[in-house]
UniProtKB/TrEMBL annotation, chain A:
Start-end of Acidic residues biased regions: 903-922
Nucleus listed as a keyword: yes
Residue numbers spanned by region Disordered: 471-535, 762-848, 869-922
Polar residues bias locations: 473-493, 503-518, 814-844, 869-893
GO biological process, one term: rRNA processing
Keyword Transcription regulation on entry: no
Biased composition (Basic and acidic residues): 763-799
Residue stretches making up the Pre-rRNA-processing protein RIX1 N-terminal domain: 25-232
One Gene Ontology cellular component: nucleus
Compartmental location: Nucleus
Protein's recorded name: Pre-rRNA-processing protein RIX1 N-terminal domain-containing protein
Keywords, alphabetical: Nucleus
From TrEMBL, chain B:
Keywords: Repeat, WD repeat
Organism the protein comes from: Eleusine coracana subsp. coracana
Record carries keyword Repeat: yes
Annotated protein name in UniProt: Protein ROOT INITIATION DEFECTIVE 3
Lineage of producing organism: Eukaryota, Viridiplantae, Streptophyta, Embryophyta, Tracheophyta
Superkingdom of source: Eukaryota
Length: 922, 384
């Protein structure tokens, strides 16, 4: 065992510490008046003390080794004495260094030592603080270490015995009281150490409020003076605001809090009076004053004597340099007061608060009719220059109000909601807009479903505007565009052309994705003329630039809206929003594939944030869907799986590049979570018979269930049984007549999403027909696809590349389900033992199968086709129109199937295919 | 007597003047007994678990309503208030901010608890309000006339919104032929109502698998599955999964514990009209205000909105600042090449060295402003 000398046992030998400390004091710490240490040396001393816990004096063993204890105590004594000598030396540097290390000692030393030396240390630092020190660095560190002293004292008090506490508290409190005056002096006179001084003052207010009581008005006036003056810069003025906000806790009572917030609001209001001259109605300021100071009551004293600095400075300069920062500091103060803990219940002048916020947010920079002589265009320009930041601070105040008041805000919720709906129109700048979105989110969360009824329109329309910004590969966004017809026809001709070479499927290019994209592609940026045509409004150009942060905020808001009130008044908005979300998610992944490598700046949202937000919103849309089967479930599942998978593949890459790893795993994490959550919807056990049967009218006799549950085996064998067939047939009629799914599908096929249907139709057409593959026709198809890619512009081509790379898995995943879909109906309806023939005879069998299918469910198709606006050839007789009809028949059925039960059937086996098929994986 | 915090009390009240009895849910030991109290079914509400409110059944022939407030630790009534008419049902929102009462003439009253202010009152039904339920801030009310209405409180509390909507209620259901006896709301906007016509109806359409318990007049508690088939509810008992048969008389009230494992029922054989499971919270309560009889005149005074003390919002003091300061200083010193210049010229170099340019710039701008101003001032005077 090592002792005072000799070798140590190992790194953890307790004897190491006293020895190290002794060496430190003897060799490395300077003597008073000694030369300065290089900064690296100081840093290394600091490190040594903190890493090894040299001052902790925590002795191991029971009982502790007395020799060790003595040695350690002696070492720490030496350390403390040396610091004391340094603090009292003449050299500024030594005093600074000594105070620094003393502050660290407060944190590191043991309780007993702290209790012993507390008062000595206090006096030492206080003398440094009060003394006419020439060195501001010393004063600053004195403030800081004094604050550390109080914090440690408070900490010790918590662990002391009960009996002593009262006395100790009194002592500490009186110490704290002695600090207040010198600190105030520093704040008022010594501009360069205000930061540290205000920190110390805040610590004192917080920990020993009673000690400040005596100086209350002095403290208030000097803090308020600093806030109102422009002497301090942004960061420390925020500190001052926080100190002002914590001041009411010195005199805990309802009145002192209310008085303070009213004073602040009055100050803000009068500042605004000056600023908004000519930009609003004259009376507004007065109205708010009436709310703050009801007639018949005394006006509270002005805040901090309201010293107006910069009186001789030019008015405009004053506004920029003085008014705006002061307002934002005062607002910050209000926000802190509203959201932080106060021991008693307080009254909030909420109407004045909201009126004030309303007043500011409604100023949009336009001149009010009644012109003032003093208003110049320059003044207006200046106001407009500052308005966004002013608006932003007031939105912060609104956020704080909502957070602080919670359910108490209910009587005022309607007016806030109205204000927000109005302000959405004004808010164009990204920072402001994201804040408006976050307010909407807060309202939705705190007040629940009732708010969603009111905010629905504003949120939905605005987020659609923000998200629908002409991304290249929407399935459709034409629901609002007049060019719907052209797009439709484009997709139509496209699909017709495709029909001649139906083997698209097996190429490396993702047929399904390309088809869904291609109508859009053609209209998109690839051909500028076309894009002009579709986005004839000039807004479209502006929309292209919707920043990521705004889009993420919009997505998050939609997510919360769906979570809170997803099943309310669904007929008005759900179909549109669901479609929007799947489109945004798709485009996010397509973009993401394109610019994964492009490093984004730190602190800014990246494309993967957008992906995450879009998937979250998508999940919310699925889970809150009012119907048993959410629309677009299959597509979304594909994305989620891909998100899971792409992430794993890129993770390695990002790991190498480092930096983005975390967000990447976040996305992967969410994807797996979402897949689990969706399990409820997609697991076979969720498919009760009566629900599943109508969901796939193309599947005659509910074949899917038959296959899955085994009950169908029985059915299958007795499939010649007419009554049974009739029964099922009846079920369809029943469904058509009564089930709530029906109008939804109709809507999906119909007006709102016309193109979608067309696109999907061709999409599934391609998916279905190629199953009987014919290698001879294969090559031309690929070239065809290639040509398509070539046709688009360069950037576009890149996009397509990315798209195909990304979308192969999706396609692959859809594929097995649809192939199942084709074979199953034929299987059951024909009860043909040789049904495997289908896959070998390309030309006849599938169409036969489908048209046969069509035959059986003619009623379904007829009624569906009536609803489907995109199918102009629906009037054609089912059997005759073998080529024309087939895609349509399969459209409805495959679409339904794909979005409903298709997903379950391919959950496991599709994964290997993805890995094979994805060209990006290498 | 400070009981351990996680204490669940079962409260039971009766229409006979027997007070409110309380038992510990775990041990069964009798706790406090609050008197006097004689309440109708669904007239007992725990206000944010902070205190208890009970609307009193009026004495025969009496025409005025009474609402009693009780603290958890005092057996007597803390505050009595006298609303304009007898209150038949009383509920509070989960945070305990508002009390909502349904009156005998079909009126609904909405009070703010902290101030006692009657925020709004409106005529909701033609006959007595029999039951109330809250889903977020949507209020569902059922009446003796068999109708069920859904109210959006945000709209109801705002004058302008009230004017904008056609009907003040959001939805109105009138499928029940006889008085509605109870309503329960579930997540996702499902409402289950029961009525004297011996049916339970699922109102909103969001069928997900649920089980609910329904207490019957015959003293049985039915365990019922939801989402089987909406239409079959009235016709047969296929959805009833089972029945608990313990009471000899009608079940009046049911309560489930928060962990979902225990079901407490009150029945007329007690006779008990109300059962309630609460977890009393003892916080720094402001003095209770009695509820006002009438709305204060609009715009007369600032509506008293309050913030309750919430200890969880307390911001801790940041310690450890000395070392942060030292490290910052060391960084700066390092930049200065280890020279001791900062200690000669004071702190200003430490902080404002990078700012000096900005300072000069602002001074320059100030000067420019001043001169431009002067020139502008002189110009009109010269012209004149």
């Amino acid at each position: 065992m090592a002792g005072a000398g000799g070798f140590l046992a190992d790194l953890n030998d307790p004897w190491l510490k006293p020895r190290l400390l002794k060496a430190l004091v003897a060799e490395r710490l300077p003597q008073p008046g000694g030369s300065e240490l290089p900064p690296a040396e100081v840093a290394s001393i600091l490190n040594a003390v903190r890493t090894h816990g040299l001052l902790s004096e925590s002795l191991p063993g029971h009982p502790p080794d007395p020799k060790l204890a003595d040695a350690w105590r002696a070492a720490v004594n030496a350390w403390v004495e040396r610091l004391g000598a340094l603090v009292e030396s003449d050299s500024g540097y030594c005093r600074w260094l000594g105070t620094c290390f003393l502050g660290i000692t407060f944190q590191e030393c043991c309780n007993e030592r702290f209790a012993e030396s507390y008062s000595t240390w206090f006096e030492r630092i206080l003398s440094n603080l009060q003394g006419p020190s020439s060195l501001q660095l010393v004063t600053a560190i004195s403030c800081t270490s004094m604050s550390d002293l109080f914090v440690r004292k408070q900490y010790n008090l918590l662990f002391d015995q009960i009996g002593k506490v009262v006395n100790l508290k009194k002592e500490a409190s009186s110490f704290a009281g002695r600090v207040v005056e010198p600190v105030l002096l520093l704040i008022n006179e010594n501009a360069s150490v205000v930061d540290e001084a205000i920190d110390l003052l805040m610590t004192v207010i917080k920990l020993y409020p009673s000690s400040v009581n005596r100086h209350y008005s002095k403290v208030e006036s000097s803090i308020a003076g600093m806030v109102l003056s422009t002497k301090v810069n942004g960061k420390s003025s925020e500190k001052f605001a926080r100190a002002l906000a914590s001041l009411p806790s010195v005199r805990v009572s309802e009145d002192s809090w209310s008085l303070m917030i009213r004073k602040i609001l009055i100050a803000i209001n009068s500042l605004l009076d000056d600023a908004f001259i000519g930009l609003e109605e004259e009376k507004k300021g007065h109205e708010i004053m009436m709310l703050l100071v009801p007639p018949g009551t005394d006006r509270p004293p002005t805040l901090g004597h309201q010293l107006r600095s910069g009186g001789n400075v030019h008015a405009m300069k004053k506004f920029r340099q003085c008014t705006v920062p002061t307002i934002s500091a005062l607002i910050h103060c209000c926000g802190v007061m509203l959201t932080s803990y106060y021991p008693v219940q307080v009254n909030v002048p909420v109407r004045a608060l909201i009126a004030l916020i309303r007043r500011v947010l409604l100023v949009n920079g336009s001149m009010h009719k009644k012109m003032f002589p003093s208003t110049t265009s320059l003044h207006q320009e200046l106001i407009c220059f500052e308005l966004p930041s002013v608006h932003s601070t007031f939105l912060d105040l609104l956020i704080a109000t909502i957070k602080g008041m919670r359910s108490h805000l209910l009587p005022h919720a309607a007016s806030i909601i109205r204000l927000m709906s109005e302000y959405f129109k004004v808010a164009k700048l990204p920072t402001v807009r994201t804040k408006v979105y976050s307010i909407a989110q807060l309202l939705l969360i705190s007040l629940g479903v009732g708010t969603s009824l009111h905010l629905l329109e504003a949120v939905v329309s605005n987020s659609i505007a923000d998200l629908n910004d002409g991304s290249e590969n929407d399935m459709t966004m034409s629901s609002t565009h007049p060019s719907k017809v052209t797009t439709e026809s484009a997709s139509k001709s496209y699909s017709k052309k495709r029909k001649h070479d139906p083997q698209m499927q097996n190429s490396v290019y993702s047929a399904s994705e390309k088809t869904t994209m291609s109508p859009r592609k053609k209209k998109g940026p690839s051909t500028p003329n076309a894009s002009k045509e579709i986005a004839s409004e000039s807004i479209a150009d502006g929309r292209m630039l919707t920043p990521l942060s705004v889009r993420i905020a919009a997505l998050e808001t939609l997510e919360i809206l769906l979570n809170v009130g997803g099943s309310f008044r669904t007929d008005h908005w759900r179909s549109e929003v669901d479609l929007l979300l799947i489109n945004v998610a798709r485009s996010a992944f397509v973009i993401g594939g394109g610019c994964e490598q492009r490093s984004s700046k730190v602190g800014e949202p990246s494309i993967s944030d957008l992906q995450l937000a879009s998937l979250k919103a998508l999940l919310a849309s699925y889970l809150s869907s009012p119907h048993a089967r959410p629309s677009y479930l299959a597509q979304g599942m594909g994305l989620l799986r891909k998100g899971n998978y792409v992430d794993m593949s890129t993770n390695f890459f990002t790991f190498v590049c480092s930096g983005k790893l975390e967000i990447g795993t976040k996305l992967a994490e969410f994807c797996s979570h979402a897949l689990l959550a969706l399990d409820v919807l997609t697991h076979p056990r969720a498919l009760s018979l009566e629900r599943a049967a109508p969901s796939g009218p193309g599947l005659n006799y509910g074949a899917a269930e038959a296959a899955v549950f085994g009950a169908g085996r029985y059915k299958l064998s007795s499939s010649g049984d007419l009554p049974q067939a009739m029964e099922v047939e009846d079920m369809y009629d029943d469904w058509l007549a009564s089930k709530d799914d029906e109008p939804i599908e109709a809507q999906l096929n119909g007006d709102a999403v016309g193109i979608n249907t067309a696109a999907m139709g061709s999409n599934h057409d391609r998916q279905l027909t190629p199953i009987p593959e014919d290698p001879k026709i294969d090559p031309p198809k690929i070239t065809d696809a290639d040509r398509d890619v070539q046709a688009s512009s360069k950037s576009d081509a890149k996009m397509v590349d990315a798209a195909t790379g990304e979308t192969v898995p999706l396609n692959m995943m859809d594929n097995p389900s649809s192939s199942d879909a084709v074979s199953t109906p034929v299987y059951t309806s024909n009860s043909d033992p040789q049904n495997h023939v289908i896959s070998s005879s390309p030309e006849q069998k599938p169409t036969y199968g489908i048209s046969h299918l069509e035959n059986k469910s003619l009623a379904v198709d007829a009624s569906l086709s009536k609803l489907a606006t995109s199918n102009e050839n629906s009037a054609a007789p089912g059997v005759a129109s073998s080529t024309h009809e087939a895609p349509r028949g399969s459209t409805t059925f495959a679409e339904l199937f794909g979005s409903d039960s298709g997903v379950e059937s391919d959950s496991e086996d599709s994964m290997p295919e993805i890995q094979d098929g994805d060209p990006d994986s290498d | 007597m400070a009981p351990p915090p996680p204490k669940n009390l079962v409260l039971a009240a009766s229409s006979a003047d027997a007070g409110v009895a309380a038992w510990d849910l775990r041990t069964g030991a009798e706790d406090i007994r609050l008197r006097p109290c004689a309440s109708r079914p669904r007239a007992l509400a725990s206000v944010g678990d902070r205190f208890l409110a009970a609307a009193q059944a009026p004495p025969p022939g009496g025409n005025s309503g009474t609402i009693h407030f009780y603290h958890w630790d005092k057996p007597q009534v803390a505050v009595k208030s006298f609303p304009a008419e007898p209150i038949h049902v009383l509920i509070a929102d989960p945070e305990g901010t508002y009390l909502i009462g349904g009156g005998g003439k079909g009126n609904i009253y909405l009070w703010e608890v902290a101030s006692g202010e009657l925020l709004y009152t409106w005529h909701a039904h033609y006959r007595t309000v029999r039951c109330l339920a809250l889903y977020d801030y949507l209020l569902v009310s059922g009446s003796e006339d068999g109708s069920i209405r859904v109210w959006d409180l945000i709209t109801m509390l705002d004058e302008q919104s009230r004017l904008e909507v056609n009907t003040s209620y959001l939805y109105s259901f009138s499928q029940h032929a006889l008085p509605v006896t109870d309503i329960a709301c579930f997540l996702g906007g499902i409402v289950v109502s029961s009525s004297e016509d011996r049916t339970c109806k699922v109102l909103a359409l969001d069928p997900r698998s649920h089980i609910f318990y329904a207490g019957g007049r015959d003293g049985k508690i039915y365990v019922t599955a939801m989402g089987v088939d909406v239409s079959s509810h009235s016709s047969d008992d296929s959805s009833i999964l089972g029945a608990l048969d313990d009471h000899s008389k009608a079940v009046t009230s049911l309560a489930a514990s928060s962990d979902g494992l225990l079901l407490v029922s009150g029945s007329e054989d007690g006779p008990v009209t109300n059962v309630l499971i609460v977890t009393p919270k003892r916080i720094n309560l402001p003095p209770l205000q009695s509820l006002r009889k009438v709305c204060s005149a609009h715009g007369e005074a600032e509506v008293r909105a309050v913030i309750l003390p919430r200890p969880e919002n307390d911001v801790p003091v940041a310690g450890n600042s000395s070392s942060i300061f030292l490290e910052r200083c060391l960084d700066v010193l390092q930049k200065h090449g280890g020279s001791s210049r900062p200690f000669e010229s004071g702190l200003s170099t430490l902080y404002s060295a990078p700012n000096q340019g900005a300072e000069w710039r602002s001074r320059y701008l100030e000067l420019q402003d001043l001169f431009v101003h002067e020139v502008f001032d002189q110009m009109p005077s010269r012209g004149a």
